[in-house]
Amino acid sequence: MHGLINRAIQSFVCNTYGQSRWIRITEAAHLGFIEFEAMLVYDDETSLRVLQELCLELGRPQREVLEDLGTYLVSNPNTEALRRLLRFGGVTYLEFLHSLDDLPDRARLAVSDLHLPALELREESGGRFSLACHTGLPGYANVMMGVLRAMADDYGALVMLEHSGTRGKAEVIEITLIETAFAEGRSFELGARAG
Amino acid sequence: MIDLEDLAFLLERLCPMFVLLDRSGRMTRVGPTLQKLRPEQPMQGEKFLETFELLRPRSVATVPALMASSGAKLHLSLRDEPRTALKGLIVPLPGEHGAIVNLSFGISILDAVRDYALTSADFSGTDLAIELLYLVEAKSAAMEASRKLNLRLQGAMIAAEEQAFTDTLTGLKNRRAMDHILSRLLAGTTPFALMHLDLDYFKSVNDTLGHAAGDHVLQHVARVMVEETRGDDTVARIGGDEFVLIFNHLQERERLDSIARRLIDRLEEPIPFNGEECRISASVGTVLSSQFARPDASTLLHAADLALYAAKRAGRATHRFYEAGQSSTSVEPLERAATPSPQEEAAAGQGAARNLAS
What we know:
Chain A is of the alpha+beta class and 195 residues long. Helix content of chain A is 48%, strand content 16%.
């Protein structure tokens, strides 16, 4: 798995639960190091072991932990750069949703060896959408749940999200957009760079 | 034929940085994004060439020449600050009704979005500006991550090199480091003195009190030598209980003798270890680089070695300078047996050799 993904998990754990718990997890997972390098690629098995030990350490189910990770990635100041990149997807939450199909391509444009599985948004009736998260990254849909929830806050939109099982091989998230301008949201200026 | 109002309406949607010019070169309509660059100065009604400076093609300075530039890529900038650079294309309207100029930021887009607080809504849906901004940010973030990785790798490399030149037990330089420094000094013109120091009675500390005591003594000795030398002098551990000190510039025998004397005195002070006292001494031989017309590393080390023999022969705890004609062959066999050469003693000092960094 790409170092950026591993690094995201590391950053999430260190900032939410503290460095010492992260070190415990790396030891339990027999990593042999405590810092993932964002620009290196690690084998999937290593990342999955870390994830497993993380859930054991926290005593929480993986889907919950991953959803929190998704929320963290958008809402924490440490990962402001990522929030900004996601906000380039559109001016409104609706536009953002429609930009999700391009997300894997956008990721690859930034970092050529970062491969995210395909996302497919379908518009149903009455402000309802379904997002199919294709296979390739275990727990992808759970992380996306967190990302979608936090991005809704970011845009000031009011949404309801539900993991609604699988369609074919893909996991599906049901999105109900109740109000696009529910709250103020956070500002996004094109010309302001993340520090 | 479409009238100008309808045309302006279409252009506002398709290319929000357009300008409609009448035949005299006056701006009759200005796209909303372009106007946003000068919110306080309405451009409509102004002369195009008075608001914008045409940088290329250089030959174009008049309205007729501008009108005749159809198809050429125009490089322009605003005449007043901030002098944002723009790219443009001019297309004459049929029937000499003026022309349409379409402008874009080109590479100045990054500054422009910041200077004018532009938003997505300021660009047409087909404009790649937003994608370009996304890409710049994404690449900058990725580059920053790579840069950090490079810095860490560089740090690791320096640490690895440092270790390779350091004696891990004492933190002094090792033989390899000393060889490097010596060859660098020999390549230069700075005179220097080279001191070969060998511990006396170290083996008996190792034998009677154990290797831990030996290690402790070596660390203490290292500390003393660092304290008694200047920052740019070199202190290296080159064998089990053998050390080389290199003093840049220093050629005065008196000073060197007093340094050696002080080293010996301090090393003779009992070193406490786990309730016991370790007692050692040292013999020192010194050579000056100026003693040889063309000194090389092995000659100097050998000369210092000979001076060290002389010191040992003189009854240990002594300092001797190298004198031409000194030789190890003058050592009597009997005397040699009583006073082992530094090499022999080092070989015997297994405890010290055990900890010797390669």
